[in-house]
């Protein structure tokens, strides 16, 4: 015990100093007099976290954690244990746990807005980064801090204004996030030759700035492409989800604001292997700034097998209604599912690389719908598809998971409140995903994680490896 304490305090000294010097170097700190700030909380916990990993590796570093088959190599690395992700772990049957907590648990535990029912995503960001449930005051301070950092540089707004409205919102989003590189304190500090031990502090500052600016950027894209181009200013005394809802033009609807709080909370993190999280981590491992790393992750999220599936689901449902007309019987839905499969297409919103049961994120959205929009015809259609699709997909016999994922439900909630433009939906997913992948980037830098570089072989080389003749 004593020796761990000595080790920890020595580490604490070596980490604490650079934090101070980072602050002196101009890295911003908005710590509250009332409650311990997020940065201080993370910094105080860091020496013990570093020590934990050091000890684990020292004592067990040479233990085998898995073996890899040739099928896994050709099968999208499914199931290969090769990443470290602290924020969440995904169980194939149970679904996601954020720092050990299920979605219903975080709905209970995380602070809510006054009069609100859903957790504030600020709280989940705190939990993902520190492993601790923040107090209501800490979450309030974080909302205020993000609001204070929300100004978007004029050239980024102009860049968005210059995009043709036919450029997909996700391409505009990742473009704008890439352009924020101009503001990166990490990139500037690195260029000046900052000490490795200070990387995390600048990564933290960049991540906070980046997250703070996303509602204005996301809303600018929405308002430019679909409305009058005007975006309301951030209200400094309001929470992140209220501001996003308000800037999109839906701030007057309390239920939509609540939906945003739920939506931004549940879409954050899904362990490290999904395309957006893994890409952000991979690009970040080259010490690219948080802006460039997140932008890369967003570009992965924009693929139809990943986050873009939420737009595909609503489009698919709309096409089904057009094809089938008002006769939405179980039989006609079944036939439509088969026509999708027989055309060699996937049923969007169904299946998953890891999950083998209904996604608990789907369940939490369904519960929201049952409370707020039980009679909406699109919700009823989604529910009817939920009854039929698993059976059809099972009979089809290809997918390992015939149940719905998060994307099967999100669009139907948004369209109910008037956000009907499906090809915008993944931008909202991206705002939330930033809150999940950036904590890990900060942790990666704090733990000094190395550049990622797995081994590849040619088919000939693999054949040789397994003793096959081609
Ligand atoms: C936030 C998220 O990213 S959640 C996922 C969002 N994506 C979607 O909803 C798109 C539809 N779903 C899919 O395409 C897949 O289920 C994925 C991409 C999510 C997972 O892919 P995999 O892990 O490869 O799934 P799985 O191992 O079950 O695939 C086996 C076969 O079933 C097919 N399959 C999987 N899901 C579906 C589906 N929903 N509809 C039709 N076929 C499917 C695969 O295309 C694959 O076919 P192939 O052998 O001809 O290549
Ligand atoms: O885990 C995955 O592969 C995809 C997913 O659901 C997510 O990233 O949210």
From TrEMBL:
InterPro entries: Citrate_synth-like_lrg_a-sub, Citrate_synth-like_sm_a-sub, Citrate_synthase, Citrate_synthase_AS, Citrate_synthase_euk, Citrate_synthase_sf. The active site is at 306, 352, 407. The keyword Transit peptide applies. SUPFAM superfamilies: Citrate synthase. GO terms for biological process: carbohydrate metabolic process; citrate metabolic process; tricarboxylic acid cycle. It comes from the Eukaryota. One of its GO terms (cellular component) is mitochondrial matrix. GO terms for molecular function: 2-methylcitrate synthase activity; citrate synthase activity. PROSITE patterns: CITRATE_SYNTHASE. The keyword Protein transport does not apply. Keywords: Transferase, Transit peptide. It catalyses: propanoyl-CoA + oxaloacetate + H2O = (2S,3S)-2-methylcitrate + CoA + H(+); oxaloacetate + acetyl-CoA + H2O = citrate + CoA + H(+). Belongs to the citrate synthase family. This is Citrate synthase. It comes from Penicillium angulare.
């Amino acid at each position: 015990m004593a020796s761990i304490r000595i080790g920890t305090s020595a580490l604490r000294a070596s980490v604490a100093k650079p934090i101070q010097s980072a602050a002196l170097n101009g890295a911003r700190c908005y710590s509250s007099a009332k409650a311990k700030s997020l940065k201080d909380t993370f910094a105080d916990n860091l020496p013990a976290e570093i020590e934990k990993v050091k000890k684990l590796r020292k004592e067990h570093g040479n233990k085998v954690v898995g073996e890899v088959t040739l099928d896994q190599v050709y099968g999208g690395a499914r199931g290969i244990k090769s990443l470290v992700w602290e924020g969440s772990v995904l169980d194939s049957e149970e679904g996601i746990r954020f720092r050990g907590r299920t979605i219903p648990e975080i709905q209970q535990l995380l602070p809510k807005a006054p009069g609100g029912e859903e957790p504030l995503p600020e709280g989940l960001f705190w939990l993902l980064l520190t492993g601790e449930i923040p107090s209501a005051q800490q979450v309030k301070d974080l909302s205020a801090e993000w609001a204070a950092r929300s100004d978007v540089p004029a050239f980024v707004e102009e860049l968005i204004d210059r995009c043709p409205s036919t450029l997909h919102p996700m391409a505009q989003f990742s473009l704008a996030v890439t352009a924020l590189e101009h503001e990166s304190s990490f990139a500037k500090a690195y260029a000046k030759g900052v000490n490795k031990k200070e990387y995390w502090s600048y990564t933290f500052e960049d991540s906070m700035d980046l997250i703070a600016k996303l509602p204005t950027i996301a809303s600018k894209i929405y308002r430019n492409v679909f409305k009058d181009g005007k975006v309301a200013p951030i209200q400094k005394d309001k929470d992140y989800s209220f501001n996003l809802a308000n800037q999109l033009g839906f701030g007057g609807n309390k239920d939509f604001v609540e939906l945003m709080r739920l939506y931004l909370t549940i879409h954050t993190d899904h362990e490290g292997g999904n395309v957006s999280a893994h890409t952000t981590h991979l690009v970040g491992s080259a010490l690219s700034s948080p802006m460039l790393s997140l932008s890369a992750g967003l570009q992965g999220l924009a693929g139809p097998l990943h986050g873009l599936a939420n737009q595909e689901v609503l489009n698919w449902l709309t096409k089904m209604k057009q094809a089938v007309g008002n006769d939405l019987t179980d039989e006609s839905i079944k036939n439509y599912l088969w026509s999708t499969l027989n055309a060699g297409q996937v049923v969007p919103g169904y299946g998953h690389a890891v999950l083998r049961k209904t996604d608990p994120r789907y369940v939490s959205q369904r519960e929201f719908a049952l409370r707020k929009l039980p009679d909406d015809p699109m919700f009823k259609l989604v529910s009817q598809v939920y009854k039929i699709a698993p059976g059809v997909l099972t009979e089809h016999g290809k997918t390992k998971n015939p149940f719905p994922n998060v994307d099967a439900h999100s669009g139907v909630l948004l369209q109910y409140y008037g956000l009907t433009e499906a090809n915008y939906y993944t931008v909202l997913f991206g705002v939330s995903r930033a809150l999940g992948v950036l904590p890990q980037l900060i942790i990666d830098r704090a733990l000094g994680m190395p550049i990622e570089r797995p081994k590849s072989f040619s088919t000939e080389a693999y054949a040789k490896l397994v003793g096959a003749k081609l």
